[in-house]
Amino acid sequence: MKKRMLAALVALVMVLGLCSCGSKSASSGSSGKYGGYESTLYKVLQTKKITVGVIGAFAPCSFVNADGEWEGFEVDVAKKIADSLGAEIEFVEVTSDSRISSIETGKVDLCMGNSTRTLERAQKVAFSDTLIVSSERLLVAENSSIDSITSLAAGDKIGVTKGGTMDQEIEAIRTDLEIVYYTSPTDGVVAVKNGQCLAFAEDSNTLEYQASLTDGVKVVGDPLATISYNSIMLPIGDQIWRDYINEFVFEFNASGQNVELFKQHFGAEPFTNFEPQY
Hints:
D-Maltodextrin-Binding Protein, domain 2, 9 helices, globular, six-stranded mixed β-sheet
């Protein structure tokens, strides 16, 4: 039933777009803001192509496997979005630091990236409804006595992913620590293991997964901040595209597909149950 509703929405948008424009207006045309179209949705439906930004070395959300192919939870979600639109998907690698600009410049149609919604970011990009819920914790060496952020001494090094929100959350708690920036969570985990920093702060879902695969590290401490509601980044102002993606996310959550896919990739239950709001 849910799939039929989504298919019906796609069909209705196509009909309305074509009826309102003839050959070049609401559905297509050089006057459109989104790649020559008035909505990214119209562009994807017409061209049958969708470009998706994903972060590299961000297992289990997105990473390139041994065969050189993209894999992960968010990769599979993006593929499902493409399938719902009958579109061919192209993945574009971004970093935590470059994901916003990839949306602003039109390099991608949407960006995954396990992105936390903030007011500062909302001035530049739009967000879908919540896809993943998490908290932030610390990863430390297995033999470390550090059990929370308060265990760190003044001047100690703590790692974060560049372009994320963890530096702000840490500075709200401690202003006397040296924050070290890494390109990806994988780099931060390696830094802790090699003794380059005493702790690495990141999304708890990612840390628990990384710790399960990496000898010599562990996840400690209570959540550093409030719960994070992570979403898909979208072009600001494109309400038609945002409405479609939100309908997809709603059905993805309500059908139980999100929970099953999360368990498949993370090897654990989600941080919290998904209760879609009407």
